[in-house]
Amino acid sequence: MHRIKIVLETIVHATEDVDRIIDSLGVLGIQRQDVIIENFAGHFENTILMLKVKKEKKEAQQIFYKISENLSKEDLDSLIKDLDNHIHNSTLYLRISKQDLISGLLYLKENDSVKIKVTVPVFNKKNKKDVFTKFLNKE
Predict the structure, then answer these.
(1) Range of the domain at 105
(2) What is the C-alpha to C-alpha distance for residues 132 and 139, in angstroms, rounded to an integer?
């Protein structure tokens, strides 16, 4: 097993139901007590929450496998094909649709998303694409 780390972050605006969003993370095997909530004030003093989840090793690997299992075939194929654009150093950057996650579905989406950073130490930079491809294919 690699020394994998995963960080998930999403912003929750005052008009959104924070409990529904936290509960939706259960699709990824994340429990309510795993979620760190930070409070911020928006430009007009409205409440903005930042939800964060940080996991390492086996727990991180399980979350990453849940992501790869639940992504649509089209999104997974597209991600693998375009992997170079999602990797910087030893970190894979993804964004999944927050609204679709509430419905129990995982789709890659840039806007109104849950940001995901998956870090796997890769010492030979030539191998980084292969390492993440194997993880995505659960090899």
Answers:
(1) 5-136
(2) 10
